[in-house]
Write a structure and sequence with these properties.
Length: 261
């Protein structure tokens, strides 16, 4: 073997060994999801949302609310506080889930000033008449007993993506997720019912860049198959790694704590 061939073989082996750890990492669906959550949301976030629902081309409702979240030690907490319409002002929700434990969901009713638990085992529970469900807002929140598998690769809007299937023994259905390889952004999700049909799809239609230069969804479109319903969710004033008051993440105080003084 001449010197040139030896050098080529050494170079090939070196490149293979350098690439091997990254390839092993990318082969783990759970690690991809966890890293996507870390990059996309950080440890905490706060955003103002405008949610518009349509039946065909007709606008049926508009809601404005605040969404806050915190991810720590495999526990996720999501807080929602409604501003508009007038009849929804002061309505609040709190979702808490730890890996391996059942989801806890609570709703605070401003008219009665009472907090009531929700049927957290039903992922289709509507949040304040927005058309959004628990599943829509808990994309990255840990959930025990699920099985994550990379089922292929596809291109979404020019971005190469991992296609990951998340199987849930809780519902008997699956969730498909398309996560970009380059930035680990969730570009699309689809709920697959127990009959194997896709009944709900979320797709990011617009991004913006954060102060750190990272991309974050500006607007998503949710379509519900067979019902002619479209929901558009737009994020404004999103900030990341900001302190969230403990009182907003506690079922005893989230409904009455005045976080805007």
């Amino acid at each position: 073997m001449n010197d040139n061939k030896k050098l080529l073989r050494i170079a090939f082996v070196t490149i293979f060994l350098l690439y091997l750890p990254a390839a092993c990492w990318a082969a783990t669906a759970r690690e991809i999801l966890e890293e996507a959550a870390k990059r996309g949301l950080g440890e905490s976030f706060r955003a103002a949302l405008t949610i518009k629902s349509y039946k065909g081309q007709r606008l049926t409702s508009t809601h404005m609310l605040w969404l806050m979240g915190e991810m720590e030690d495999h526990t996720g907490k999501i807080f929602l506080d409604f501003d508009e319409p007038k009849e929804s002002k002061g309505l609040r929700f709190l979702l808490i889930v730890s890996e391996g434990s059942p989801l806890q969901a609570f709703m605070f009713l401003p008219a009665t000033k009472k907090t009531i638990p929700l049927a957290a085992d039903d992922p289709s529970v509507d949040l304040g008449g927005t058309g959004l469900t628990v599943e829509d807002v808990r994309v990255f929140m840990p959930k025990g007993g699920e099985k994550e598998t990379i089922v292929g690769e596809e291109t979404i809007d020019g971005r190469e993506c991992y296609k990951i299937r998340v199987s849930s023994p809780e519902t008997g259905g699956d969730r498909l997720m398309w996560i970009s390889k380059k930035d680990l952004l969730v570009l699309k999700t689809a709920n697959v019912n127990t009959k194997g049909k896709i009944d709900r799809v979320m797709k990011v239609t617009e991004f913006f860049k954060t102060a750190k230069g990272n991309e974050f969804p500006r607007e998503e479109r949710i379509t519900i198959a067979g019902r002619g319903i479209t929901i558009r969710v737009r994020q404004e004033n999103a900030v990341f790694d900001v302190p969230i008051p403990d009182e907003l993440l506690d079922p005893k105080t989230f409904g009455t704590y005045r976080w805007r003084q």
